[in-house]
Write a structure and sequence with these properties.
By secondary structure, this protein is of the alpha+beta class. The protein folds into three domains: about 1-35; about 45-60 and about 115-155; about 70-110, no CATH class. The protein has helices at about 1-10, 10-35, 40-45, 70-80, 90-110; strands at about 50-60, 115-125, 130-135, 145-150, 150-155. The chain has a five-stranded antiparallel β-sheet, with no helix packed on it. A hairpin with a 4-residue loop joins β2 and β3 (about 130-135). This is Glycine zipper 2TM domain-containing protein. It comes from Janthinobacterium fluminis. Keywords: Membrane, Signal. It is found in: Membrane.
């Protein structure tokens, strides 16, 4: 009797099996959409969170020298200029050496007092892009998830 029922309706059994399989396949994407990932749920709730999109590390020269470099450069330049020529030419070379040495000493001091900075651009969860400057070499990488806490970036796991 069993064989008679399957041979009587072979198309019906196949159609039922195909329909059941198709309904399972159709329901799988809906289930995945209904259960967001933990990060996705957290991202929607965290307005001060975002993803790093770029970093750029650079040297920032000191805004101004302390004067030590300029004075030291002027003394050295004046002494070197005094070694050139004689008479009025020597006086002119001493003054030129002092002025040139002062400028050079100031520039050297600014370069020696420069600091390393890193600019980090973050795409916030609300879609805006914010830029942050951190002291030192880069501690962030593109794709890293971060949170802004009191104006500073904190890595999120």
């Amino acid at each position: 009797m069993k064989q008679a029922s399957t041979t009587r309706f072979p198309g019906l059994a196949r159609a039922a099996l195909c329909a059941a399989f198709a309904s399972l396949l159709a329901a799988a994407p809906l289930a995945a959409q209904a259960a967001p990932s933990q990060r996705g749920a957290h991202a929607a709730a965290c307005q001060s969170c975002g993803t790093v999109i770029s970093t750029r590390t650079y040297q920032q020269a000191a805004a101004h020298g302390s004067g030590v470099g300029a004075v030291g450069g002027a003394v050295v330049g004046g002494l070197l200029g005094n070694q050139i020529g004689g008479g009025n030419g020597r006086k002119l070379a001493t003054v030129a050496g002092a002025v040139g040495g002062g400028f050079a000493g100031n520039a050297i001091e600014k370069q020696a007092r420069s600091t390393t900075k890193t600019q980090v651009k973050v795409r916030m969860n609300n879609g805006s892009v914010r830029s942050f400057v951190e002291a030192g070499a880069s501690r962030r990488h593109a794709g890293q998830y971060v949170k802004v806490v009191q104006g500073k970036l904190v890595a999120q796991r």
